[in-house]
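User: I'm writing a tutorial on reading structure tokens. Could you give me a worked example: one chain, its sequence, then its tokens, then a sentence or two explaining what the tokens reveal?
Assistant: Sure. Here is the example chain.
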Amino acid sequence: MTFKDLGLSNELLKAITEMGFEQPSEIQEQSIPSLLETDKDYVGLAQTGTGKTAAFGLPMIQQIDPEFRAIQALILCPTRELCIQIAKEMTQYAKYTEGVNIVAVYGGASISDQIRAIKKGANIIVGTPGRTIDLIDRKALKFDTVSKVVLDEADEMLNMGFKEDINLILKSTPAFKRTWLFSATMPKEVERIANTYMEDPIKVTVGAKNSSAVNIEHKFCLVNGRDKYFALRRFIDHYPGLYGIVFCRTRRDTQEVAEKLMNDGYNADALHGDLSQGQRDTVMGKFRNKTIQLLVATDVAARGIDVDDITHIFHYDLPDEIESYTHRSGRTARAGKSGISIALISPTKSSKIKLVEKQIGKKLELVKAPSGQDICGMQLMKMINNVKDVQVNEKGIAPFVAQIHESLAEYSKEEIIERFVSVEFNLFLKSYEKASDINIDPSRIRQGRDRYDEGSGRRGRERDNEGSGRRRSSGADDSAHRVFINVGKMDGFENKGQLLGFICNQSGIDGGSVGKIDLFDSFAFMGVEEGVGERLISAMNGKNIEERDIRVEFSKEKPSGERRGGGERTSSERSGGERRSFGGDRNGGERRSSGGDRSGGERRSFSGDRSGGEKRSFGGDRNGGERRTSSERTTTGSRDSEKNNTDNRGGGNRNFRERRKRS
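And here are its predicted structure tokens:
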């Protein structure tokens, strides 16, 4: 079937042909004839990116009476971006249809300009609920002549808290109007709106109700919360041609993740509600023209995004409303193309996986964060393909060819290839050569999810107590089977569960073979079953974290506080003097614990002081400079260590990426 078969006017057909429309999508094919031929309410359910705007926009324009100089149709949508996008597309559809005037009204722009545009003679209003209410209150908008109302992305408007606004707006419209509701999902609140304001509507569902597009691959990766950023970077590096969106739950997380990506040399930027309309437009402009490769966004800010060719969606955090997962994922695989959606899941949130699967009607595939070797292989092949595809400027290079041949005459063809590849690739190999495995074995979550999770909490403590009898009977808590490890809270382990997860991940031991854990600022003690200590020492010694080697050894004593081998704590230590931990020096010098020198090195708290002052908390200095708290390192990461070292988890290299970017 073609658009001509749907009953559209020649003016509309000419306009959409110029726009590149060829075959109608399923929602367009089913909606357009019904909306043109019948005078009934309508409910259309289809995924984001399936062409819903044309499905209601084309018949709406065709039914406008150009001689009647009044508002005849209203389109409500959740966000500024979507409002602007719909108005732009509608204007393009109406290019050859005389007398159709479309005005967009949304917050963040001059309300006076919008009022003037309305007074010039608008017959279709595209608006966000908040600004529409404002204009009604100012008597600038009256809907007593409206014959059609479209609720686009109805589920999202309700999720954003616009229920009362929608009710007020619909009550201001005449009883004879027709209501067209389009949505990706149909939660109960949307059904309630339909039952209240619609009379025996035609209902069309494209695909399974509340389902996801069939051409999206849904995957999830299990990593600890502290490793999410590094997992994200690994996936980005593993897909060299990636063009995607990273979704975060909060504005703060969005800004922090974007800044970290930019500091690490990626083409990225943030989109969230704290940006002005001008800033949002600038960011979206850069993303649309692919000046930036990655957009880091909140759910609200991204709801108006309508960009083609997005290859990947990353869920840095799963949304609070599971229905939002469908909207997020729907930003890829548009117009019949395929896409990949990857959720980064920490153990504490693993229960949400089944909720997502139930929502979209399909299983999520468990995938591992790529290893350093996998990433290097992908990047190497990208480099080789770039060499194969490069256009040689023979004229420009001609004066230098003889000199090049002379300089390289002593090398064979194989040696020249290896050397040219190594010029760029050695940096990448070096960045990932010590990259550790950050993936979590899902079977361990099932064995002891709460102890293995990021939050220890009451249930985690109960689980420790439940298993203590077995462990004690095996000698796990005897001093002969206690081990010392020189990592602690300063390294980002906020509780025992996090530390246990890290150790099990790195060593391959079963979490059930570990007994009581004593966690301190700069080190920890663990009771282990017989034979486990030797395995732990063999597996962990030589690995590194935060630019220093991990050290594990048997302990001859049980701790009575954080004073192992340190004797009596002096009064100078209590008053802020230097205090050295048993773990010694991370980088060849002294290491101070949290009771250390308050005056020696500044330590920033997580929140810091963004207004220009610096908020200081206790703590020493690893290298004579500034030291961030463990929570800051866990949540926001140390930009210096990420930039220079990659923490042996995320890999990558800023200099390499910058050179890659320039090429």
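What the tokens reveal: The two ends are 45 Å apart (CA to CA). Residues 4-205 form a domain with the Rossmann fold fold (CATH 3.40.50.300).
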